[in-house]
Amino acid sequence: MNAKGQAAAPAMGQGSTDVGGTETTMVRATGLTKRFDDYVAVDGIDFEIRGGQAFGFLGPNGAGKTSTMRMIAAMSPVTSGSLEVLGMDPTTEGSSVRARLGIVPQEDNLDNDLSVSDNLLFYGRFFGLDTRTLSARIEELLRFVELWDRRDARVQTLSGGMKRRVVIARALINEPEIVLLDEPTTGLDPQARQLVWDRLYRLKQRGVSLVLTTHYMDEAEQLCDELVVMDRGRIVAQGPPRQLIEDYVTSDVIELRFRDGVPADTDVLQAKLSTMARDVEVLADRVLLYTDDPTGTAGAIDASDLKLAGTLTRRSTLEDVFLHLAGRSLNE
C-alpha cells in the first residue's frame, strides 16, 4: 500500500521500468498483412510500440484492428510482412510470446461458478506458478484493482465493472511486459471506467506497454501516447492524440441548430457558411463549422440572417478526427 492507503501498482516483468516509457521496441511491424482467402483484413501496415507506451488502434468495424491484435497475441499467423513481439516471431515462437503477454478480451470470459480468487488461481497454473507465489500475487493484484474484500465471492454475483477488474487482474498474473486490451471499458458506468483508467495508467507508469482497441474517443485521449487510425486494413493516420487533432481538424467546432430544421437547399447553405469557417459539414439535425478563429466565426454567424435555435462552440476532439478520416457511415 502507498502513503495514501491505496494499492500500489504490482511489479511487472524484466522489461519494465520504474517510471514512464523506454526506447526499447516491444512490437515492430513492417508491411504486416493478414488475408483470409481473397479478403485482405490487414494491408501492409507499419508501426512500432515502445516500452511503457500506451498504443491504441482506432477504426470502424472491419478496419483490421482485431486481426492486428490477434497477430500480436500470437493467436493468428501473419500472412506476409514481418512482425516482432518482444524480439520474437509470434508465428514460430508463439508459446514464448504468449508467456510474456497479458490478454484482456472484449468479453469477460471468467468462470462464473468460481470465486474471484480461484479464477486467478487456476489461470496462474497455466504459467507454472507455485501455490505460494500465486497466493501472494493474487492478493497483490486484487488489492490493486480494489477487489480484495470480494476475493471469496462467486464471479456471478459481481457487477460488470467488478468483473472487468477481475479480468484485468487475471491478465497480470504472469507479470506481463505487454498487456493487450480489446475494448477494455465497454459497457461500464462512468465510475467504473474511471477506476479502470486509473489502474491502466498506473501500469503504464511502471513501464508496462499497453496495446488497446477502443471505440471511446475520450478513452483514447486519456490513455494513449500514440494512436493509429485504421480503415479498410490500412493505417490512415498515426500520432499522439493531440497531434492528430492539430493535423486533421481545426482548433474549434461551432455547432448550429436551426429553428425550422436544417434548410433543404444544403448547397446554398454550405456556400454561405463556407465564408465563415475553414470547413462546413451539414448533418441531418445540425451544421458543424470547423474554425481556427471561433471568435471571428461567431461574429459572422451573429451578423447573418440565419434562423438559429442555438449555437455551441467547443474544442475539437479526437472524435472529430475519427469521423473526418473514417466518415460517418457505418461499415458492417
From TrEMBL:
One of its GO terms (biological process) is response to antibiotic. One of its GO terms (molecular function) is ATP hydrolysis activity. Residues 27-257 form the ABC transporter domain. It is a peripheral membrane protein. Belongs to the ABC transporter superfamily. The keyword Repeat does not apply. Residues 1-22 are annotated as: Disordered. PROSITE patterns: ABC_TRANSPORTER_1, ABC_TRANSPORTER_2. It is found in: Cell membrane. One of its GO terms (cellular component) is plasma membrane. Keywords: Antibiotic resistance, ATP-binding, Cell membrane, Membrane, Nucleotide-binding, Translocase, Transport. It holds the Pfam family ABC_tran. The keyword Cell membrane applies. InterPro entries: AAA+_ATPase (IPR003593), ABC_transporter-like_ATP-bd (IPR003439), ABC_transporter-like_CS (IPR017871), ABC_transporter_ATP-binding (IPR050763), P-loop_NTPase (IPR027417). SUPFAM superfamilies: P-loop containing nucleoside triphosphate hydrolases (SSF52540). This is ABC transporter ATP-binding protein.
